[in-house]
Amino acid sequence: MTTNGLVLRVYVAGWTGLNKKTYKLLFVLYQKKDDILKRKQRAMEKAKEDYNEQFQQIFENSMIGMGLVDLRGDWKRANRSLCHILGYTEEELIRLNVKDITHPDDLGNTLRLLNRLSKGEIEDIKYEKRYKHKNGYYIWVIIAATMLYDREGRPLHYVSQIEDITKRKEIEDDLVLSEKKYRTIFENVQDVFYQTNKDGVVTDISPSIEQHSGYSRLEIIGRTVDNFYYYVQDRERIVEELRQHGSVVDFEVRLKTKNDELRYASVNARLIMEDGVVTGTEGSMRDVTTRKFHENALQALNNELTASNEQKNKLFSIIGHDLRNPISGSLQLLDLTLNDLESSSADEVHMYLSRMKQELSNANNLLEDLLTWARSQFNAVSFNPVDIDDVSEVIHKSIQTAMVMAEKKGIRVSERVPEGVRIYGDRAMLETVIRNLVTNAVKFTGQGGEIEIRAELGEKGTLFMVQDNGRGIPADKIPELFSKNASYTTFGTAGEKGTGLGLSLCNDFVLKHGGELWVESKEGEGTTFYFMIPELLKP
Q: Residue 102 gets which letter from DSSP?
């Protein structure tokens, strides 16, 4: 035993006895060992004190909140940062349990993690949760916790590092909200938003594309935009515009659907630039097909209005000139006859009356055409088909008004209609068509010419032909003959003036029968007008 009470156990061998000198030597040796042990013990205590002091300084001065929590969840220690985060003083906090300030929705997860940590299932934990601030509102924190054990390995308490992440969570929530809003707009907006790379490959497109084109997003993403243009020229035009100006606004293109249907789209787009290099394009498209159809319909209405105005002007011209002239001429002949009645012979009176009859007959025919044309413009002409067993009689009756002018020009008019030709049609309309075609043939056939009217049965119906050997029609004028927007007319071989209404009226009447009217002509050789009257089903 040493002087300080330390018991030393020694083993001595090879001695049968110890003298006083030997004992003294052993005592000195053990005394030195005792001093060494004392110095080591003091050093260990000093290191422990230094460690505790350093821990205290780190604990108290850490910028991160730090706390000690026992196994029951009671706060045992809290540094200044933690107190600042939670709003409590250390004295206030150590009177609370972790459960007291944990958000109810986070409590279950907190207890589960702490329980696993205390059982040694995990060495440490790191998780996010909400603590209730002293002022009553909740803050978001991130906690890193571990367990401290005693010398026997028994758990003592949790050591937690706590950081306030409320602002970060607010930013994250704002980003999530912004993303949600963007995604909502992106997925539900009626317009189509898209992005492409520099090679024109679609990298993203909104789901609304499906309702406009029939393609799903996945069917389009990864394909080049060339696949979706109805006309490749539109793609070339928009690329050139982007190249020159960097963007386009309300640029109209024609796209095609999955079923190859035409769709009109208005595009707003811009180039995507990174470090001065074009990396792609982005923009939006709006389906304007309905608007385009409305514009086309409006244009058609404008065209009809223009044509109507032209027809009105033509009507005034006819009334003012073509209709007035024969009436005025007849009045002059009548005045001449009355004034010279006593001195005129019977042959002269007959001649005057014949001319008057011709002028008045022409005026009457013109007036009938005008009235019929006017009714047709207002769809006031009723279509009354009947069985017509005497087609040859219809033709013969129709050409009588033109025979006076034909005889005057020495034109031979012949009819060729086989027996048994019957049709189901509107008699008045057919007479008007034949009369106008024959009158035109007489007008544009020279002195001593020939005109032939034929009707023959075909596979699709009855084919009518009015053929002359007159001066013919210029090839560039043929397309204008049946157009409502054109008013081609010219003078006949004897200076006759046409109204320009006859062929338009004939075409309308043939169309009402479901038929077709066309012409073949060669300048200097003659003209043949054809019209087909199909077999109509009786009601």
A: B
> At a CB cut-off of 8 Å and minimum separation 6, what does 478 contact?
519, 521
pLDDT digits (tens, 9 = 90+) for 73-110: 999 989 989 999 999 999 999 999 999 999 999 999 99
On whether the CB atoms of residues 498 and 506 are closer than 8 A, the answer is no
Find all residues with CB under 8 Å of 200, minimum gap 6, and list them.
224, 225, 226
Contact of 503 with 440, CB cutoff 8 Å: yes
Dihedral sign from CA coordinates of 53, 58, 60, 65: negative
Q: Which of 492, 500, 323, 490 is nearest to 411 (CA)?
A: 492
Q: β-strand 247-256 against 138-149: which pairing, if any?
A: unpaired
Taking the C-alpha atoms of residue 371 and residue 376, their distance in angstroms, rounded to an integer, is 9
Question: Which tokens belong to 418?
Answer: 């086989």
8 A C-beta contact, residue 131 and residue 106: no
CA dist., res. 133 & res. 44, Å (int): 42
The Cβ-side half-sphere exposure at 475, using a 13 Å CA radius, reads 1
117 is written with which tokens? 């940590």
122 CB neighbour count, 10 Å cutoff: 12
> What is the model's pLDDT at position 14?
45
The secondary element (H helix, E strand) that includes residue 348 is helix 346-377
